[in-house]
Amino acid sequence: MSNKPRAILTGNAPAPAGHYSQATRSGSNLYISGQLPIRTDKVPLPDRKFETQARQAIANMLAILEAAGGKAEDLCRVTAYIVGVENWPEFNRIYSDMLGGAKPARTVVPVPELHYGHLVEIDAIAAIPDQD
Asked: Where are the annotated coiled coils located (predicted)?
């Protein structure tokens, strides 16, 4: 596989809203852009609960990972930005549930606010083996 960066785009995660890619792959390295809890159809989530938002943001990240040929076990590093440190235990529960046995290095950063009132944003780096 070429080391030249190439954009990854899937319809199973929301399209970028600015001048960036959902992810960029260079060789076996995949860099997933920050994913907000936005549905692919851009229709607002049915509720504003932290759990609903966290599950959607993680699902977006995993959909992009899958589109690049990866799986949760290929994740190397995840960074999550969460509004409200009190949401940390719930984030841990949801994250563990959705990633299963995968345990990449991780940082959780409590922040005062995110775009459009969202409560979580998540980005990641993965190493995806060549499929040749």
From this structure: none
pLDDT in tens, 83-110: 999 999 999 999 999 999 999 999 999 9
Q: Token pair 């994913």 is at which residue?
A: 35
**Angstrom distance (rounded) from CA 47 to CA 107:** 26
Q: In terms of pLDDT, which residue wins out, 41 or 3?
A: 41
Cβ-contact 102, 66 below 8 angstroms: no
Token pair belonging to 6: 């190439």
Residue 129 clears pLDDT 70, i.e. is over it: yes
Contact between 11 and 40 (Cβ < 8 Å): yes
With CA atoms as reference, report the closest residue to 122 among 61, 64, 44: 61
Domain boundaries, the chain: 6-127
What is the average per-residue pLDDT within 25-54?
94
CATH code matching the domain that covers 6-127, chosen among 1.20.1300.10, 3.90.550.10, 3.30.1330.40, 3.10.129.10? 3.30.1330.40
Q: Are 79 and 107 in contact (CB under 8 A)?
A: yes
